[in-house]
Amino acid sequence: MARRHLNGPFVLPVHDIVRRPGEMREHRLQAAAPAAWGEGLVSVAEGTPIDLDVRLESVHEGILVSADIDTEYAGVCGRCLTDIVQPVQVEFQELFGYPGDEANDFEVQDDHVDLETPVRDSIVLSLPFQPVCRPDCPGLDPATGERLTAGSAPETPVDPRWNALAALTAPTTDHDDEAARPDADDTEKS
């Protein structure tokens, strides 16, 4: 893993717990998203506040990081294209291994851990693929493109090939019903 200069809002010092299994530190921090995170209908916009409750635990293999993340995403409803803003609450746990251990995705570097990548990945993976403004959003009318109201449904045009079948199921008049019943005359005479 290539070394880089460690600074930024997601970088935390761990020099006082490195290689001291059983030691723990807790941090509460707020940082702004450095770029837009997520693609598609919703994303966490650049500059959106991200609140983190972080626990750093020293273990034999490195520093175990547990975090609770609170932020919000913005975008459009996948059904009616209305603007939406919704909260995102997610947690992650990641082991930052000591340098030289090839088995870890993340490393303790210069007695610091950089949480930006696991925070971003956790948030992006929690974003809905098909976000909705509300669970019962009726969406748009396919013919007019207008927003449907609750309880309304677009009228589906009937394929003209079904007209002959529709005629068979069409409602009949009372007179036709009586003529169709063979015992109709017998009932009236009694």
Structure description:
- This protein is α+β, with helices and mostly antiparallel strands and 190 residues long.
- It has a domain at 11-126.
- The chain has 4 helices and 8 strands, in the order ββββββββαααα.
- The protein has helices spanning 116-126, 163-168, 174-180, 184-189, and strands spanning 11-13, 24-32, 42-43, 49-59, 62-76, 83-97, 106-107, 112-114.
- The strands form 2 sheets. Strands 2, 3, 4, 5, 6 and 7 form a 6-stranded mixed sheet that branches.
- The N and C termini lie far apart (99 Å).
- The relative contact order is 0.15.
- What order do the SSEs take from the amino end to the carboxyl end, as H and E? EEEEEEEEHHHH
**Count of DSSP H/I helices:** 4
Spatial shape: elongated
Taking pLDDT < 50 over at least 5 consecutive residues as the criterion, the unreliable ranges are: none
Radius of gyration: 31 Å
Average pLDDT: 85
Estimated share of beta-strand residues: 25-35%
Terminus-to-terminus distance:
99 Å
Question: From the helix content, strand content and strand pairing, which structural class follows?
Answer: alpha+beta
Percent helix, as a range, is 10-25%
Number of strands: 8
Q: Describe the sheet with the most strands.
A: 6 strands, mixed
